[in-house]
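hey can u check if this looks right to u? its 384 residues, i copy pasted from the old doc so theres a chance i mangled smth
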Amino acid sequence: EVRRLQVLAQDRRTFDELVAFVLAYIDDWQTRSAGTNGKVVLMGESFGGLLASGVALKNQTQLQGLLLANPATSFDRTDWATIGPLLASIPSRVPLSDTRLKDLVQNTPGAEALLRLLPLPVPDKSVGELAYAAVAGGTLLARALDQKLAGTLFNLLTGQGGQIVTAAQDGQLTQKLQTLSQDTVRLLDSLLLTLPADTVAHRVDKCLGMGAQRIKGRMSEIKVPVLVLAGSDDNILPSADEAKRLVAALPDCTKVIVRSQGHLVLDAAQNVTRILTDSNVVASKMRRDRVNDFVPPSPEECKAAVKSVEGLRSFYSPVFLSLDADSGKVVRGLAGIPEKLDGKPMLFIGNHQTLSLDLTMLVSQVYDEKGILMRGLAHPVLFR
């Protein structure tokens, strides 16, 4: 069962008030269920990670563990305490800040034609809002940009470029440009709705700043299991370094570093359920058993895997030999390997050469000849 906390843009509660709200909610939820819900796993991303830490420092008795994704527990070691207020002050620093764009240009020659080119709601935005959106949007994009996001933006831009060329060839260029303009305006409007300047000022001071002070020097007091999920390329927070720090500082903390991932680490590519069940954050009965919970690949997937090593086979031309148990002689092929033993396990002991290239051919050959899918044994550290 999952519950989500969303802090809206107009919410002016402080860090302490949000911590009290979460604690009260957990207590009420547990009371209404008469304790049948069990303990809670708190998951927080960015500021949510800082908030979850604050909740744990107040009361850990009802917590099973924490999952902190790119947590803002590192806020006091960033420059956001300076950048945030500067961004928030932009509307008040711009001349004619409160003047709406359409009022500013109404006496300008050609104003009516200009305003018609600008889709709503741009003409109704103030000069200060537009200046803030331009600077803040650019700053956030520059900080949030990682390898994955850059690739997505590149594909989006090149795709849009191709669509513009096609639209021009079809005589639909005007309509296409209008659509692109409307999409841009929606992004601008979304920024002004979700992170207006006064919200940024409040959250930097009363949420992030206050939260950083509340947890300073106290993270080691969190005794429940903690899992830190960090993007290796996070440019908004030093998340990879913070993960190392928390592992060293907390008594029961592990980390998962997601390569080539920035601040937006909880995207569709991350199976959070799998990450949790592979950790000690959840109760033992919920953890994934790598033996009993194994789901074998489909026959199609197995055939595709065998096919994928055809290049290696043709290059090395491997020869497989086995021992015939009846005659005691070495025979060519894998006939000496027993057939499936009525569902009973069979242990195959062997070794591999450099880079394990031969292992892929051996596994695929056993499957191809005997229909047996071999599963490797390895130290648990290799699965982390």
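The chain has a mean pLDDT of 79.
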